[in-house]
Amino acid sequence: MSINIVIANQKGGVGKTTSATSLAHGLALRSRRVLMVDFDPQGQCATALGINQEAGVFNALVNTRSDIHQWIRDTNRTGLSLLPGDRSTATAQIVINAENRPIDSIRQLFKPLGREHDYIIFDTAPSVGGIQERAIYAADMVLIPTATEFLALDGLAQMMELLSALREKHNWSGKLAGILPTFYDEQTSESREALTELKTHFGESVLPPIHRATILRECPAEGKTIFEMSPASRSSREYEELSREIVKLS
User: Which domains, from first to last, does the chain contain?
Assistant: First the structure.
């Protein structure tokens, strides 16, 4: 059965999609079968991988009796496929909330795909409830990217409260894969102090940071991951290390 990993944070602009696509491709390069699922209405996972945005997630969530395989797309990367999303994903969230679907609805939807993949990576929008809450419940592990800035702990506090609530109210059995500091710049006091604060509060849960790099901002425009854009770069090594750590935790 697959290991389901959700990439989540209540705060936007933390490098979530970059981390999701980099981790997914990093795992695929380790000969794992990986499915990415883009639950963010911005649909940027498809853009980052150089393929078209589609209403795949909407169709999968709303037409639950259809064969989910028909909405999955090949990314032209060995071992990596994508269930793409677009703006219609926001409508799917409205439907899910209106129907008050059970907390395990996303887990059940993707359960049949468990034998076909080693990992399923859920990229989520920075919002509370609806899809994000059900995606977290479907996950075995949660990875929380967080920018190394003074307000970093705010979004983290909300995420920790959500994880705690899912454990207490719904017996969620998943675990925290780690907190991933992003946009780290050791030359600025803000970054250094933010990283120190993260380590003070969360200790060993804090993973090695991803440094701020222009190349990471350029990747989506080219439709390439960091491993394709600049395989010898520090950013590539850092995300390769993240994928190695996730395999160890699995």
Answer: 3-244 (3.40.50.300)
